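Annual report, structural modelling task.

Input specification for the PMV complex:
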Amino acid sequence: MVMKATALAHPNIAFVKYWGFRDEHDRIPANGSISMNIGCLSTKTAVEYSQSFKEDRFVLNGEAVTGRGLFRVQQFLNRIRQMAQKAVFAYVESENNFPVGTGVASSASGFAALALAGTAALGLALSEDQLSSLARFGSGSACRSIPGGFVEWQTEARTGKSFAHSIAPANHWKLVDCIVVLSEDHKSVGSEDGMRTAGTSPLQQARVMDSERRLDLCRTAILTRDFDTLAKVTELDSNMMHAVMMTSEPPLFYWHPQSLEIMKAVKEWQKDGLEVTYTLDAGPNVHVIATQTDVGEVLVRLNQFPAVIDILKGVPAGPARLLSSGYQA
Ligand code: PMV
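The model returned the following structure:
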């Protein structure tokens, strides 16, 4: 019996972000979110199950993972094993094509690839909606790395379920995400722990209440390729999420002084007529997003900052995909 599959997925960057749960147990986000997959970055994950394995093992970028990292993967595998009604241990081998320590989170691409490879290896053929729904239990944003291109994750209130779907394909709009790496440190408070405190901020309720409006603006801006509106809503949404983080108990300060410097520079560049915007996740690195026309000039300007360690560039990318599947009952 062969139970093996390999899948590839891209991370994503959200224009309207998810931060906090409506229902943590069922991983229902407090608000919907919209993102695009990032083409230059990917995670490739091979999953093999065998009756002869005595335990689950997880190797990431050539190194065995133990402790909390392994536990998260095991919890996720348990969900898959339960779906397939099979009690077998797994060997999971995962590789990111981006260097470790760029401060770029790999949990979205990692759990999207694991959802696809882990289910295919047990002979489960899930629909895209089902896969996305499953992936959110590994890491919320992973559900947005299952469909391709520009993706919206709706809350359960509107759909009755919680999964993400594509609102436009990858080739719809050639935006370029320039990930400005300012720190290679592992973040001190990960998003999973960080967002548990979101409800302690008096600003969270206002952020969530206004989210439908931002989602409508963002979705329409993407569909009509309206960069100015996309820039306005993207920056507002990032600023709102960070305002919540900074006013939570305990407060979370993810920005570095240089992050703010770059955000302010982007605002100046917009006055020069460049189509450019910024957004930050739970870390100090700035995603500077530009149109294909203006990205060259934006890169020249970004490279003038002495604090910049690296700049990774990515255009919108397709869905998570199976590279090989060798399930034979
Ligand atoms: O995927 P998680 O559960 O680690 O959360 C990530 C949340 C943010 O990246 C900060 C925002 C988002 O919507 O991607």
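The chain is about 35% helix and 25% strand.
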